[in-house]
Amino acid sequence: MKCRKCGEKASINMRQHRMALCKDHFLEWIPEQTERFIKKYGMFARDEKILVAVSGGKDSLALWDILTRLGYEADGLYLGLGIDGGIEYSAESQRLTEEFARARNLKLHVIDIEKEYGHSIPVFSEISFRGKDKPCSVCGLTKRHEMNRIARDLGYDVLATGHNLDDEAAVLFGNTLQWSADYLLRQGPVLESKEGLARKVKPLCRFYEREMTAYSIMRGIEYIYEECPFAEGATQIFYKETLNQLESARPGVKLTFYLRFLEAKQSGDLFIQKDEKPPQLHPCERCGQPTSAPNLCSFCRMLEKADAS
Ligand code: AMP
Ligand code: FES
Ligand code: ZN
Ligand code: ZN
Prior knowledge:
alpha/beta; six-stranded mixed beta sheet; two-stranded antiparallel sheet; 10 strands; binds adenosine monophosphate; binds FE2/S2 (inorganic) cluster
């Protein structure tokens, strides 16, 4: 297999694009494409302040690397969730993220949930569910709340996450199987800012997971290999595997599934329509973030419950 650009030996073959590239050209191609997606979907402008949510995994570290290579002003945010799971998951991912920032002289904000709120994620989860459920939902709620809070308090215009195509296609697959209109209408590369929340963007949403792995390795990025020990619901993993099976029989099917969805949504062809009025939002009495609940947002309700227990 030869590189399409220079004819040297290829390092990666991307069947969905019918294109193989050598290491140097692949490492050029990824940021070029990212820049194209940023412009195409109107993610952010050159003069906007970007906050990258970095978990210590390959996708978000690669995203931070790409945005800096492209010359954007992007600072990092790491959330310490206090997850151990026998592999010191949080401690190790924090170490790798801090090391990445230090080596490149980048600004990183670190928020330790336990120091901030008195309990780690597993403890919050234990209090909320009495051990009957995995911490993932409490974890997701906390991450969203804290990302919004830091972006607002520190004056960032945009919040960028490292979701890749495999993540997005799996979510889309799940939402389609359920015909979850609300979720389908909200899914996309950009979630516009509203009621004081920063705009949310996913610049890597068109790259396959294996492309991000290859990019991180070729760039010498040290990232945490392990998944969170509580591993995001088995369903999500099952959808990813199913899509990968389809992909190996029909290269490109994952990308087409996602892109055609975005096109249909943009042109208004998606036959799902929301007719009722969107819920009335007002500021949470404790933290000020928009919520449809009467007094407190779900995060603050969880905090109150934990503090009272
Ligand atoms: P996940 O929900 O673990 O699949 O992660 C999706 C994205 O959320 C990652 O690519 C990161 O951008 C962000 N993220 C996940 N965990 C953290 C964390 N502990 N701190 C900051 N950002 C995170
Ligand atoms: Fe949050 Fe696993 S429970 S990352
Ligand atoms: Zn080449
Ligand atoms: Zn609140």
